[in-house]
Automatic annotation (TrEMBL):
Cellular localization per UniProt: Membrane
Protein name according to UniProt: CYTOCHROME P450 71D10
Residues given in the record as heme binding sites: C143
InterPro entries xref list: CYP450_71D, Cyt_P450, Cyt_P450_CS, Cyt_P450_E_grp-I, Cyt_P450_sf
Naturally occurring in which organism (per UniProt): Salix viminalis
Membrane topology, record value: Single-pass membrane protein
Taxon lineage: Eukaryota, Viridiplantae, Streptophyta, Embryophyta, Tracheophyta
Length: 165
């Protein structure tokens, strides 16, 4: 729980800040939203108004697409099958490359570009049913800390964008 919960969230946060610094347009837009939302209600960011930070949510999604904290997700094969011409035996260990899937040009336009707005038009979500976007994994063993992680990242990022230039 501690290793799964701590490092993953801080890694995502570091990547979000890194991408924002490299993309001043996105930084400005995200910062404007945070400051507008919280100045309008006359308070510094707290968890009650996170749902109003629509663009910040897109920034976090785009960060997790390009930089999933766990790049590969392990599975063990339960039933013999064939994938792209390869026979996968029972008990084989398979590593699913979430990092590569998130950058696959078959699924993503300008896949390497940090462009949070892409998620306005794309219905893909990280809740485990869009297999082209699996930063929290999928299926029975997907991350049980997802909602907590997202709330934590949103809250911390909002605080930083609000208080610092
Ligand atoms: C950005 C933050 C996080 C990311 C990207 C992340 C990602 C993942 C991924 C990819 C898995 C494997 C899922 C699979 O096998 O399908 C996983 C498992 C897990 N995560 Fe997270 N995680 C995050 C935050 C957290 C937090 C905050 C907690 C707990 C407080 C947590 C607890 C766990 C646990 C206990 C598992 C193992 C679940 C199992 O094997 O049944 N994670 N996480």
């Amino acid at each position: 729980m501690f290793s799964g919960g701590g490092d993953t969230s801080s890694t995502a946060l570091e990547w979000a800040m890194s991408e924002l610094i490299k993309n001043p347009r996105v930084m400005e837009k995200a910062q404007k939203e945070v400051r507008q939302v919280f100045d309008d209600i006359g308070t510094v960011p707290d968890e009650t108004n996170l749902q109003d930070l629509k663009f910040l949510k897109l920034v976090i999604k785009e960060t997790l697409r390009l930089h999933p904290s766990l790049a590969v997700i392990p599975r063990e094969c339960r039933k013999r099958c064939e994938v792209h011409g390869y026979d996968i035996d029972v008990k084989s260990r398979v590593l699913i490359n979430a990092w590569a899937i998130g950058r696959d040009p078959i699924y993503w336009n300008e896949a390497e570009k940090f462009y949070p707005e892409r998620f306005i038009d794309v219905s893909a979500d990280f809740k485990g049913s869009s297999f082209e976007f699996i930063p929290f994994g999928a299926g029975k063993r997907m991350c049980p800390g997802m909602s907590f992680a997202i709330a934590n990242i949103e809250f911390t990022l909002a605080q930083m964008l609000y208080h610092f230039d």
